[in-house]
Specification:
The chain is an alpha+beta fold. It has one domain: Ribosomal protein S6/Translation elongation factor EF1B (Alpha-Beta Plaits). It is 28% helix and 50% strand. Strands 2-3-1-4 form a 4-stranded antiparallel beta sheet, covered by helices on one side. The longest helix has 17 residues. The radius of gyration is 13 Å and the shape is globular.
Amino acid sequence: MRKYELVCIVHPDQDEAAFNAIVEKVKGWINESGGTVDKVDVWGRKRLAYTIRKQKEGQYVLFNVTLPPEATAVLDQNLRFLEAVIRYMLTVVD
């Protein structure tokens, strides 16, 4: 098991209920793959450095997770097809 940081940028048009549903869906994927969510930190709405999908703002959320290395491919695939997530980055924490 390794520790990872997952930062997701969620589409700014999502209301609070939809945003929370997306966060819970990502947490569910992590738990299904045998990992654990250690911490969730919602950074809130921030201006993007450049336009992504015609959006200038996004809602940021940081997940500190523990996952088996082989589960990252499944998480990557699930996040790629979740339309409300406009960008994400999964990095290993030393």
